Amino acid sequence: MTGEALIVIDVQNDFCPGGALAVEHGNEVVPVINSLIESFEHVVLTQDWHPAGHSSFASSHPGKNAFEMTDMPYGPQTLWPDHCIQGTPGADFHPGLRWTKAELVIRKGFRKEIDSYSAFFENDHKTPTGLSGYLRERGIGRVMLAGLATDFCVAYSALDAVKQGFAVAIAMDACRGIDLNGSMAAMTEKMREAGVELR
Questions:
Q1: Is 10 designated active site?
Q2: Does the pTM exceed 0.90?
């Protein structure tokens, strides 16, 4: 499996400045990712795709605020502002992203009862998105990740990709993080320990 794919994580309006869950300077990744897209033969995109009233929204938990933690049946869950709701402008890809070369768009977080950070698994770490099988069938053994946010969906995707047997690199200049309670340092260290190449 010698092929290599670029996986672009969640470059959507709600994660960019002005969006419901904006990552600071998130829009700055767009030109860098566009250049990467041009240089890769295989491109996959992920799209956060929540139904209204998703269980990871703080608004679904009376008395809870955004960015607080709660316990879900599958483990601890950060509660988020309502974001990337199916069919809304916030869920659309950033208008500057030249994404039409993508061979596959993986939608995640569409099951109301469970969140999904990783491109490979839901947050229960058991329910697959099907991406591993797709890449293997295409003969792809290496992946490069870029997108939003470094310390959540990018990092979780990278760690799961390693567990699934792929060689993994992250284009750090094509990512931006949230840094919630030190999450950037913690997840960067986890990725290094797992053998992810941080470029």
A1: yes
A2: yes
